[in-house]
Design goal:
Helix 1 (5-21) runs parallel beside helix 3 and helix 7 packs antiparallel against helix 8. The chain folds into 5 domains: 5-79; 88-231, GAF domain (Beta-Lactamase, 2-Layer Sandwich); 248-381, 2-Layer Sandwich (Beta-Lactamase); 420-540, Alpha-Beta Plaits, CATH 3.30.70.270; 546-632, Arc Repressor Mutant, subunit A, CATH 1.10.10. It is an alpha+beta fold. It is globular, with a radius of gyration of 32 Å. The strands form 3 sheets. The protein has a 6-stranded antiparallel β-sheet with strand order 3-2-1-6-5-4, sandwiched between helices. It is built from 21 helices and 16 strands. The two termini are 56 Å apart. The chain has helices at residues 5-21, 25-37, 42-82, 88-102, 143-151, 170-179, 211-246, 250-274, 278-289, 317-323, 361-400, 407-417, 438-451, 471-486, 504-520, 535-540, 546-564, 568-577, 582-589, 593-607, 614-632; strands spanning 107-113, 120-126, 137-138, 155-157, 183-191, 194-203, 292-296, 302-305, 330-332, 336-343, 346-354, 425-432, 454-457, 462-467, 490-498, 527-529.
Length: 642
């Protein structure tokens, strides 16, 4: 017997109540079971299953959001702890303990390097250890620390002894075996442009670190670097106090200035902890330094500013950002100071200060601290955006996977996520040419979220679905944005546009074939769509027809003949068959050479000045042959793709 409609509504309401109560998964299964036991029809069971499917999506999103909030909350608590006035040894103990607890690992430790050419030594450790103790000498060559320092980026492994990527050192391997360690994550500690140490987190089980966990530890490493540097400044300040009491009032002035720098930096960290945005942090920096401050993205575009820069004598900030690799402030023309905002090896942008005052050492130090705090804020904002985009990325995976899921299910997911799949999308495939793919993935995910599109990391490339009616222009834009950020070229292929769910996967395959074609013709680091590849697009494309190619290449000439009853197409064929000789073409057509010359001038007006260039001429000749073949076959295959 079919369920009463009210019963369906009651079960739907029960699903909402379970969501509100954060009930376990078994409670949801009981709703479906009770519906079947009550004799529900297939349609009614489908309605109940649909409600449960939506509930599962909501529960997954809530779980990810809770996990993200817990991680950010733990990072904020850590940042608050690091602002306290610890001495260096106490601070290092706080950092290692926080590192171990953030990811629930067995141990964490920090090694320092007295200079770039010396071995490191363990300064502090947290967690039960027998062989890896304070004072243990860490060989400069080999191990995760060496790879992390050389790349100025996190380096991790799920199973240290089994990982062949690592340059193993017998001393390090012996300690790893003695401690029974498997998963290890190393984050460089960077100050003044160089790595002065490494923060290690390790577990005695095989464990695969997620991108979110690596990003979290990288953020902790940035906070720790700033805090350690601050502790060293405070230690120096304490030394200055002693010198002040014994020798001169000059040290007192330096101490007062260092205290002011520390106080303002704590206020900056306070803004970060309160959830204030970039505008408030920029205003505090400008007030402390007495000038106009602008925060810029990697291409020199303004993200936040306290006012307009003076007209005239303004330096080329974009060029300076690309050429300035040190993390210390540099003076530019026109009373401008620039300090890059970085996260490891990644350039997040820069801070531009305009002031007519002469900056002393402490003020330059404050400007550098402002850049470090700004970098942490930008990373936190980006990590939040990445977490929100994860669900969208999973949906993009579903659109590009084979076999394709049921269309109604995909449309429902698009509606829940607020994605309009009826608008045209360009499908873009990205392949970084050298370097790590990680930074490209982070950029692509953020770019897709801002552009209202979708992102997916595939085995052969990074896929983007971007709202656009011009795939070629979209590919060029992606290349222009991403290449300067990575510091090396990227090859970009594009296809579309399409607004049909079932066409996204074939369009992505076409974009990947464009990548292969660009590589085959020496186009590494360039971008193109199948349409822009000309006759190569016919060989690559799934949706490009012979008629479209002919129309795009010699359509104006065909239209001219049709409307004016001329013989330009025939003249064009004769011209190419005669080796580009107007005289021989005239003999073949039985007309005067001047007639051929006038017709060729008309060709130039219709096709453009470059139609006789070798590459363009090849396209035109192919279009002429296809046009002649199509007419011969009676247009029977006019719209069928090659």
């Amino acid at each position: 017997m079919a369920l009463d409609p009210v019963s369906i509504e009651v079960r739907a309401l029960a699903v909402l109540e379970l969501l509100a109560q954060e009930a376990p998964a078994s409670a949801y299964e009981e709703i479906a079971a009770s519906a079947r036991a009550a004799g529900a029809t297939e349609a009614e069971l489908a309605a109940v299953d649909k409600a449960l499917e939506h509930a599962a999506v909501v529960r997954a999103q809530l779980g990810r959001r809770q996990q993200r909030e817990a991680s950010l909350s733990a990072l904020v608590d850590t940042a608050r702890d690091l602002t306290l006035p610890f001495d260096l040894d106490a601070l290092l103990k706080v950092i290692t303990r926080r590192a171990r607890l953030l990811l629930n690992l067995d141990m964490a430790y920090i090694s320092f390097y007295e200079d770039p050419e010396s071995d490191g030594y363990v300064r502090t450790a947290d967690g039960h250890a027998t062989a890896l103790t304070v004072g243990f000498r860490v060989p400069r060559q080999g191990g995760l620390g060496s790879a992390s320092r050389s790349n100025s980026a996190p380096f991790w492994t799920s199973d240290y002894m089994a990982d062949e990527r690592i340059a193993h050192h017998p001393v390090i391997d012996e300690v790893v075996r003695a401690e029974g360690l498997h998963a290890i994550l190393a984050v460089p500690l960077i100050g003044h442009g160089t790595s002065f140490g490494v923060l290690y987190s390790a577990d005695r089980n095989v464990r695969h670190f997620t991108p979110e966990e690596v990003s979290l530890m990288a953020s902790l490493g940035d906070l720790a670097s700033v805090a350690i540097d601050k502790a060293r400044v405070l230690n120096q300040a304490r030394t200055d106090i002693t010198a002040l009491e014994q020798y001169s009032s000059k040290a007192k002035s330096h101490l007062t200035s260092a205290h002011r720098v520390n106080e303002i930096h704590q206020r900056m960290i306070g803004l970060l902890l309160e959830g204030s945005g970039l505008t408030a942090l920029t205003a505090l920096t400008a007030d402390a330094l007495g000038g106009t401050v602008s925060v810029l993205d990697p291409r020199g575009r303004t993200l936040a500013a306290t006012g307009d820069l003076p007209a005239g004598n303004t330096p080329d900030v974009a060029e300076a950002l690309l050429t300035q690799f040190a993390d210390e402030p540099v003076q530019l023309a026109g009373d401008h100071w620039l300090v890059p905002v970085t996260a490891g090896t990644e350039r997040l942008g820069g801070i531009l200060l305009h002031t007519t005052a002469v900056l002393d050492e402490d003020e330059l130090r404050l400007l550098q601290l402002a850049a470090g705090t700004t970098g942490v804020l930008l990373l936190m904002e980006r990590n939040t955006a990445m977490a929100e985009s994860q669900v969208r990325d999973e949906f993009c995976d579903a659109l590009l996977s084979t076999p394709l899921r049921p269309l109604p299910q995909l449309r429902d997911r698009a509606r829940i996520l607020g994605i309009d799949l009826e608008r045209p999308y360009a499908v873009v495939a990205i392949r970084p040419e050298g370097g790590s793919q990680g930074r490209a993935v982070v950029w692509a995910s953020s770019y897709a979220l801002v552009s209202g599109g979708l992102c997916s990391v595939r085995s052969d490339s990074i896929a983007l679905l971007l709202p656009s009616e011009d795939p070629g222009a979209t590919a060029r834009q992606v290349s222009q944005e991403l290449s300067p950020l990575l510091g090396h070229p990227v090859t970009v292929g594009a296809a579309g546009p399409t607004n049909r769910i079932e066409d996204f996967q074939p369009a992505y395959a076409e974009a990947v074939r464009c990548l292969s074609a660009l590589g085959a013709i020496g186009g590494i680091g360039s971008s193109a769509s199948a349409k822009e590849l000309g006759f190569l697009g016919l060989l690559l494309g799934d949706h490009h027809s012979v008629r479209d190619y002919i129309t795009h290449t010699i359509g104006p000439v065909i239209d001219y003949d049709t409307h004016r009853f001329t013989n330009l197409v025939q003249t064009l064929e004769a011209y190419f068959e005669s080796g580009g000789s107007p005289t021989y073409a005239a003999e073949a057509l039985h007309v005067h050479p001047n007639t051929v010359s006038r017709r060729l001038e008309r060709m130039t007006a219709l096709l453009g000045d470059d139609w006789q260039e070798p590459a363009r001429a090849l396209e035109v000749q192919l279009a002429l042959r296809l046009h002649r073949t199509r007419d011969t076959l009676g247009n029977r295959q006019e719209d069928r793709p090659l």
